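ok so heres the complex, two chains, lmk if somethin looks off
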Amino acid sequence: MQQIPLTDEEALVLLQSISSDELESFSQDIYDEVANEVSLGLCFEVHRAVKLGFLFLDESKEDEKKFEIVDEIGRDVFGQVPMKKQFECICPNCQRNLAASRFAPHLEKCMGMGRNSSRLASKRIANTGKVDSDIDDLDDGDWNYGNDKKSSKKKRDKNCPRKIKPKARNEERKALLLQCCGVISEHTKKMCTRSRRCPQHTDEQRQIVRLSLLGQQITLPETTDDIQVDIDTYDEGQTQLLQEAMYRSWDTGSSTNASPADSGSAPGGSISSKRKEKRASSNSGRSGGSKKSKSRLPPGGSSINMGNHGALVSQPHLPSDI
Amino acid sequence: MSVHGCAHLASFKSAKGTQSYRVLHAYFIAGITEEARKKKAQTCFCHTCCRHTSRLHACLYCVYFGCYDGKHIREHALSKKHNLAVDISYGTVFCFSCGDYVYDKELEAIAKRHRRKAAKLNGIKEQYYEWEPTNFELDLLRRNPRRKRISDNSYIGLRGLINLGNTCFMNCIVQALMHTPLLRDYFLADRNVCHFQDDPSMCLVCEMSQLFQEFYSGKSTPHIPFRLLHLVWTHARHLAGYEQQDAHEFFIATLDVLHRHCKGTNGLSSSNPHHCNCIVDQIFTGGLQSDVVCQACRGVSTTIDPFWDISLDLGPSLHLQSSTSGPNSTESMGNDIGLNEDMEPTSLLDCLERFTRPEHLGSSAKIKCNGCQSYQESTKQLTMKKLPVVASFHLKRFEHSTRFHKKISTFISFPQYLDMTPFMSSRRGKSSNSSRASDNGYTNSVSIADNKYCLFAVVNHIGTIETGHYTAYIRQHRDQWFKCDDHLITRATVQDVLDSEGYLLFYHKQILEYE
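and the predicted structre for the whole thing:
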C-alpha cells in the first residue's frame, strides 16, 4: 500500500467513513506497530549491553538477607540489643588507646584547649602549632558575622601576655625556692611544689637545683625556719600564681607571649565567667550531653594536690558538664 | 569488547567516511528537522514489498530500503555485496559479514547529536542517558565481582555513631549530611578530587568521603567518629572544647570548613563565595535578596547575599503591627486569611511568612537613599532569590536576649512537602492574597515544580538552654524514616517526625534541573 500524505480535511473525511470494525483493526495495527518498536528498542539495549560486556555487572552474589532491617521492639535496625559496650579508639594526637566515650575530654586536654590541660601540651602547641592556630582564628572571624563578641573576646585573651622583667624574675625565683622543694622531676620535667622537707627528694637534689638556677651557693635555712605551707588554708589563686611563676623561672628560654591556651587559664574565677559570657553572647543553645551524670572530679576545692604535676585537679567543671 | 564496531565497518569508514550514515540518520531515523520528518513519513517503506512495519533497514552503500523480516535487505546485501545496513527505527548498524549488529563509537556520537537536535524540536531540553562504564571501569568492576544491592529493606546506609563525650550535636549533623541524597551520590560516585594543599590526612572533605564509605559498608556496629572530631577541632578552633555545643553552629562551621577544603587553602577565592562551584556551594548555597525601599522616592536598593541556612525567629513579633486595611497595606497580610501576625508563629510557613514580610524600619533607622540623596525612612524586605538544592531551616529556640534566657519549646508544625514559591523574589510586591490562592499569577506550571521541597532530616533538642541532648530523624529509601540517637538507630513513622519539636529542618529539592 502506497503512503500518500493526506491533508487534515481529507483525513477527517476518510475517518468519518470508516466502520467501527475497520477502526478497531486500524487501531490494533497502530498499537502493534508501537509495541513492536518499543520491544525492538529493548532488545537493542540488551544486545548492546551484552556485546559491550556490562549486562550483568550489577548482579550480586552476596546474600541480601544479611542486611535486612530488623523491626523488633527492643532491638535496633541491625537486630542488635542496645548494650553499653565499651568502644575504643586511638587519639590522632598522641597515639594513645582510650575509651571512645572519654575521647572528647581527652582530646581537649591533648590538644591543649581545656582550662586544666597539661602545661606540657599547651607548651607543645605554643612552640609548634602557633602559626596554624593563628590562621585558624582569623578564618573563623570570616564567617562569624553574628558573633563578633566571641572572636573579639578571644583576641583579647591572646593579647595579654605576661611580661616580666628579668630582674624581678630572679627575685621571684629566689622567693620561690625558699618556700618550695624545687627539685625537677625526671620524667615530667616539672618542679616539685611540695615543702622543702618533702620526703621524695633529698637536700642534695635541692641544692643542685638552686645552684643551677640561681648560680650560687645557698645554704638552706634550718628546718625550724622553714616557711611551712599550710595546705588547708592555701587558696587556689595563690597556687595558680605559684605554678605560673615556677614555669616562668624554669623555662628561661621560652617567649613571654602566652599562647591562647596559656592565657586562657587566668587565675581562678575569671575563666568561668568569660566562658559563660562567651556562650551567652551567641544565640544558641548548649547541649550534647551523654546520659551519664557523674562528674569526674571530687566536688569542692579543698583537696588540692600539691604533688609533682602542675595541673590543678581540684577546680570543678562548669555545671553544664554532664 | 567495546565500541569499536567491526573490521568490515572500519574498512567501510576508511573508504567512504560517515557521510551516508549521517544523511540516513538525520532524515530517516532521527528526523532532525520538520522537512526531514516529512521525508521520513513519506519514504520509509521497503523498496521490494512496500511494507513499512517489518524492521526496515537502509543500505549504507546505495539508496535502498529493505525489510528484515521479509529478508529483502538480506537479498540486497548478498546480491550487491553491500554488507552494511542500518536499522531505521534505532540507527543500529547490521554487518552481514559478521551476521550481527555492531556498535561504533563514532557513529554513536553522530546519532546522539541528531537525537538531541530532534528532541529540541519537540521541546525536550536535555535527554537522560544511563551510566555506562568506561573500559577502565569495566575492568575494575570485573575484577571486583562483589556487589551490595541496596534494596528497600536493607540497612546499608544506616549506621550508629558513638558519643565521644557531649558530641551528640555532631552526631546529628553527620546523620543529616550522610542522608543528603545529592551529597551522598557525589561521594559514592567517586566524584571528589582532593584539593587540600596540606597534609591529606587533615582534609575534611576526604574524611567525609570516608564517612560515606563507613555508612555504606554494611557494618552493624556503630562508627566511632574520633578522626572527624579531631579534624573539626583542628580547623574550627572556636568550636573546640569538651562542652555541650549547638548543633546549628556546628552545621555552619562544618560547611565552612568543607567549603574551604574543597577549594584548597587558596586565600583569594575564599573571600569570594559567589564564584565558587564546589559541591558545598552547589548543594547548600542559596541567594537571599534584600530590598530596601525608600519611602520618599520609592527607589529600591537591592542586594543579594549568599546563605547556607535560614534562621527563623519564634517569639512574638517585635514590630508594632499596623494591621490597617488602608490603601498602602501590602504589608498587612490579609486579615481575612486569619493569620495571627501579632501572635507567635505556629508553623514553619508562619515563620517563613514573617521572614519575608516587608518591615518598616523605624524613624530611628533612617538610611541614606541613593535615589533622592537624603535620609529617609524605608521598608526592608527579604526574599529568596535563588534556592539551594538543600534548604536548611533553623528555628531559633534559644533566646539569649535581655528578656529571655530560656528555650522556646512551643510546637512549630512543619510540612513534609514545602513549596517555596510564595517566598521567592519573583513574587515580591504581590499581596499575600494572590500568593495564597492556588492559581493566580502562575504563568508556567513547570516553575511551580521548581520550588517544591521534601523533608529528609530533622534534628531535635531535648532539654533546657543549659544542657540537653540532640537526636535526629532521617529519611532513607524515599519514604522510610529512622530515629538516630547516637549509636541507637530505630525505625520511626513519618508522624513521629512531624510531631517532634523540630530545631533544624532539612529539605531537599524534589526536581533537579540540568544546568
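quick notes: The CA atoms of residues 123 and 259 of chain A lie 8 Å apart. thats all i got rn
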